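Incident log, structure service

09:12 report received: a user says their structure output differs between two submissions of the same chain.
09:20 pulled the input from the user's history:
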Amino acid sequence: MQTFYKSAAGLLIAIVMTTSISAREDKPAAVQSQETAAIINGSASSTATYPWVAFLASPDGQQYCGASLISPTWALTAAHCFLNDAEDAVDIAVGAQSNVILNSNTVAPLAANAIRGAIGRIIIHPSYAPDKAKSSNTEDYDIALIELTAAMSLQPIALLAAGAPEITAGTEALILGWGTTATDSEGKGINASNVLLKAIQKIVSHAACSASYGSTLTGNMLCAGGLTATDTTDTCQGDSGGPLSIAKGNSFVQVGVVSFGGGDGPSCGDPKTPGVYANVSVLAGFIKQHATDATSTTLAATSSTPVLSATVTGSTVTISWTAVTGATGYIPYYAAFPAQAPIGSLDVGALTNLAGPLPSGTAFYVAVQAYNAAGASNTFSNVVQFSIP
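09:34 re-ran on a clean worker, output below:
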């Protein structure tokens, strides 16, 4: 077992280095939730880890929205990314002049191997109605598909399937984007990021989210917010259209599209107000009607991979994971955040949760591996990160 621990420790470092996690937008001329903008309190990320994350750029190179590659020839984004200046209708002709940028961590200059995907067609959800003079809910059905003129060789992200069970409140989700990173005195997003940022959010129940948005929130929407009651991490202007995704084993499943946020507070970064996303599972019929080659899946754990989550209440952290069929025990691995070292491990037998107090300022990465009489699984759970305030 000691030899195994040493080799697994190296693997955990690789997992930590390649596992990560907001959204909203600035419209192009003429033409956060989580988002309308860049991620607040995010950390640098890489398209090498998330090859399916993309952004929309106007002809002059300005980044104004996020997107995700869901098949070789289709990208998913928010419908409001294509609003006209009056914001009462979509302007497909102007939007189609944009490019879908893939494989670049930066907006300017683009990476040497960046891919500029030309737009062949934009399809807005037929029920999206942005005209406030005519629509009872201008935020609903905020989803759009982009058909590319050429197939991409990058790995697309899988989508949460139609009819999937409601995601449990508290489930951790990843946000990614190039949006604004702060708000001004009027609560507007400022300081757009030139590099891809990521952050972790938690799914917020529909009932709790309704307290902020009332009847604006519909069954076509999904909410996510900070990890704690004071966490201001959020998507913001420029992140709109980007993906909200949840780890499944060593990959991710897209569950939402950054739509809007703010309520009666700041447009981004208000810990009391969750971000709102278009619900991918609920709107899967529209997506699959056109992007027939997009992959759909559920969030159910695989037979060999636990799904890990961590909750912090005051100074107490609770770490829990789903049971794996056939497993007789589990080994949590942990490493200091952000140093990623030293790495420790603990065989907890058949337990599927741990809880206890930790000193203020403590922060760790954690991943779990299952084992049985035949040996340890060759896959780890998703990696979670927690901090004690």
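09:41 both user submissions now match this output. Likely a transient worker issue. Closing.
09:42 reviewer note: Helices lie at 2-17, 92-95, 206-213, 284-290. The two ends are 35 Å apart (CA to CA).
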